[in-house]
Records
---
Amino acid sequence: MKKYILLLLFVLASVAIAADESSAIFGKDIIPNILAYDKAGSLHLGKWFTLLQGKYFSIAFLAIAFGVPAVFLVHYLIIGPMIFSHDRKKIHVFTIFHRFIHWLAGFSFIVLIPTGFVMVFGTFFGGGEFVRVCKELHAISTVFFAISVLPMLFMWLKEMLPTSDDIKWLMILGGYLNKRKDPIPAGKFNAGQKMWFWTCTFGGIIMIITGAIMYFQDFKLDIIASLGLSQIDLLRASAIVHNVLGMAVAALFMTHVYMSVFAIKGAIHSMITGYKEEEEVEILHSTYYKKLKEKKEI
């Protein structure tokens, strides 16, 4: 048995010597990394990565892909959309810059999420050229999202900070479970929109970083080595974090689309024209509406 182990190590050593010395995966560190697998100092991610990637991630993504739309379909059929008067004032809410950044991020997600699902279920799609094209489209769309994420973070940061209204909003689920037009405690953005914002921005930034690590894979950073992380540990950790955040982003993006396109009739027009209907603001963002009235801006 020992001679086979020695032969294997010899072959690996030969590969390492022949490989590019600067390679983080196939360079001179390949044998130390293999020998250190699952030993003290490693992240012990091997079994977890195999279990999550091989079984549970696909189940969770499948549940999101079918479960979230199914819940919204039931809501639409039973509760139906909120409809507000279009005969009152129009309240200017979003500038041209706000709308441009929003749509840049929005169109990025329209590509990122479906291509992400294709990569998760790459085996189902048979791999090959289709999955490879989706991978490249995913990477290209990430660039456009990266351009939008920081402007989006800074332009809405103050208005997205938590307030006491958010707790009240969550306790009644934003009033979406009944057909009454009771004023809902919310500022310019409600608790649901804030959840999506923080997931989209901070979560999105982490996904950009972990996605880049997985896309480029074979690179070397001194800071990684200084933390005692092997490249394989870094890749596994990145994949796990990327997938978990991907689930949250996919579910909340579907929610965001449903709310703006179906649950509130005409709501999406505010991101086209910049204006919301006065009754919509009065009911769904009552705290914000009161402040506008106090400032005599409406």
---
Amino acid sequence: MNAPQAHAAGAERRLVELGITLPPPPSPFGKYVEAVRVGNMVYFSGMLPAVGHDLPLLGRVGEALSVAEGRKAAEMAALSALAAAREFLGSLDRVTAVAKLGIYIATVGDFREHPAIADGASELMASVFGDELLAPRVVLGMASLPLGVPVELEVLLEVAH
């Protein structure tokens, strides 16, 4: 096992150490699947700040929501992604890299604090998988997102065969 794989093997243990309880895995809000594996890559549908099928935070950051609430929404979306990954893979210990993290944020037009919100998702992933498995990320501001959520994540994971 190489160093990143050895580090990733502790993801489930780190969840316990951090006191993180994953929410119920998300369920689709339309006609799609949550994840598909192609080779050693797992592509996930857009991850919303959902708890199961409930959406507790709605609105645009800088309007209905503060930066702190937007950051919390990004963390919630990352927790949903981890729950979906665990359900799909059986264990987060199978993850060998977070290959990509796209963070889409519904904001008002002149908003500039996107990185502070995106860090809510990035920091959670780094806590669980370690900095050496952390992905490059794209952070974009949007006029609106599905169902009125403030954040949607795009997640691509590399997994062990």
---
Amino acid sequence: MDVHLDRRCFLLGAGLSCVGLLGWNTPTWAVPEEDLLNCRPADPLEALITGNNRFSAAWQQADQADSTNERSQQMAALWSGHCFLPAKVMAQGQAPWATVLTCADSRVAPEWIFDAAPADLFVIRSAGNTAFDDAIASMEFGVLALKTPLIMVMGHSACGAVKAAQGDELPTPLLTELVKPIRAAIQPGQDLEAATKANASYAAKQLTARSEVIKDAVDNGTLQIVVGYFDIGSGKVTMV
């Protein structure tokens, strides 16, 4: 199923009637639920990977540009041809087709990295992309109310939180608390890349270990959890 074609159909063919407003436990749709869900890509993971391929190609081309203006033009061209939902449509509700738990690092913006439009992704960010309580609760909301079919936990190169967890002391008690789950995930002697991937994998396992809602969704086949690693230099996301 072509992602852009589906979204164009969603916007032009169905308009407002194709967007439902989800309640908490009992979804309330303007149209049958399957009509909205059919607007999603058939394979959300493939859509993320394909979008990242577009981004990384533009990212690397921009890196070779001679001027800031040329780099900006090359990156802006990435979004040409996208079908963006107008505000009056998005105001009616949301139906993101993937959840991304990732780091708060300013260089790691999922909407850019996956060449996604507004309303495509349900994004949760915190330094070190750990499975903290509010993150898990947010993903439970995504499963119960938004019915997102995919969760990606994504670490990234040069992660400052993981590097801090590999050290001995941190300057504040709250930062010490922040890195506790990272320290539980990594092993002594690991390089930063290996530790970052181990941390992301550990966080992904925590989702089903600590949430019956998420575990049940995985068990019944309505939710897939994957782990990714974003390399800032190349712009590529690889599966862990």
---
Amino acid sequence: MKIFSPLYARAMAWSRHPRAPWFLGGLSFAESSFFPIPPDVMLAPMSLANPQRAWWFALLTTITSVAGGLFGYLIGYFAFDLIEGWLRASSYWGAYEQAVAWFEAWGFWAIFVAGFSPIPYKVFTIAAGVAHMALLPFTLASLIGRGARFFLVAGLMAWGGPRMEAVLHKYVDRLGWATVAAVVIGVLIYRA
């Protein structure tokens, strides 16, 4: 069943849209403070479709993501009481508690790791505000962690360029179904 190849073709068409950088910047900002979808889902196809602009896309993603992280920091610093009930009821509460524990243990490095890894960065930005982490180390850790992640993604996609785009198009359905199978197996193992 070819379900993933039409989605892939649409994503590549959208990544070439003239307003795609605006959407990338908006998504990057929102993801760092409240939105659940990571900017990599736009950054990767945009860098793949336009390899000559990949570094620009990575810089845009980094700057807007750090700006969103600062917004998340402000939410934690000034408005945590307003969102605490929602956060407790959401699936992010455990991650928030983990973020608080990491801050107590590692401070700067907690933000760096959250910025680079697939850990929900937004939870760490809010927790940093609640913990009243110094703003300069927070910003530096965010710039380094987020920048390293986004420049790595953009660089890999630009390096692959049109060759990688063609290979992905050829195998996207197999990769998509393999990913679905891996997720199902992971859920079954987790529940066991």
